[in-house]
Amino acid sequence: MTEERPQHIERREQLLAVAKKIFAERGFQSTTMDDIAKEAGFTKPILYQFFQSKTELYKEIVEDIATSMIHSLSKAVSSAEAPRAKIEVAFRVYFDMVVSDTDAFRILFIHAHDGETAGELRKLETGLISFMVPYIDLSISDDHRRQLAAGVLGIAEGAAVVWLVQQEAKGWPVVAANEAERLASRSATLAWGGLRAVQQD
User: Fold this and answer.
1) CATH number, span 54-196
2) How confident is residue 4, by pLDDT bands cut at 50, 70 and 90?
3) pLDDT of residue 1
4) Does the structure show a pLDDT above 90 at 159?
5) Cα separations (Å) of 198 from 70, 81, 83, 87, 151?
6) What is the DSSP letter of 62?
7) Dist. CA 173–CA 169, nearest whole Å
8) Which residues contact 26 (CB under 8 A, 6 or more apart)?
9) How much is the mean pLDDT over the chain?
10) N or C: which end of the chain has fewer CB within 10 A?
11) Which pTM does this prediction carry?
12) What pLDDT is attached to residue 201?
């Protein structure tokens, strides 16, 4: 058992990595379990030993992305004190992930989420909004703060989508070392300028 366990884990992680890459390139609907098994160098029966369905595999990938994102954001924001610093560091962590893990964000934002996977992106967005609400330190109602958190998230998502589309159109060039910082600064400036103007209804 002690010898087999690491191999089992390694194989599962390999399948997840291959599936993530293919889903990023083709989307959920256009990807088959045959595609994933072939790319990973395994038979489809072996793939089904680890994942009962394509939907289960896809959902685990999205859940892993969400967990990693929330963990990274929580760790970074906890080190910031002022409200503006919290907003800025959150954007920086977000765009660090966008730039360093384009496959994850292509899965989330570039390909359509239909049918069995329709709720996956919404779950992630709801989780991110709930995470951000406490950091909008304004004397307004909870409903208003939640709406603003959704707006801030919309800024981040919109900028990420446009950047990914631009990168794809350019053939995925090597990213500049300060790219994430540049994207984060633009979005944080826009978000903070809007938040500063907010007043109680």
Assistant:
1) 1.10.357.10
2) low
3) 44
4) yes
5) 26, 20, 14, 15, 12
6) H
7) 10
8) 35, 111
9) 89
10) N
11) 0.85
12) 64
HSE (side-chain half, CA atoms, 13 Å) at 115: 8
Domain residue ranges in the chain: 54-196
Which two tokens mark 128?
A: 């991110």
Range 13-37 burial, b when 16+ CB lie within 10 A, else e: eebbebbbbbbbeebbeebeeebbb
Select from 27, 21, 129, 19 the least CA-distant residue to 69.
129
Cβ–Cβ under 8 Å, residues 92 and 9: no
Contact predicate 160/186, CB 8 Å = no
Tokens describing residue 158: 């919109």
Cβ(58)–Cβ(141) below 8 Å:
no
* More reliable by pLDDT, 68 or 3: 68
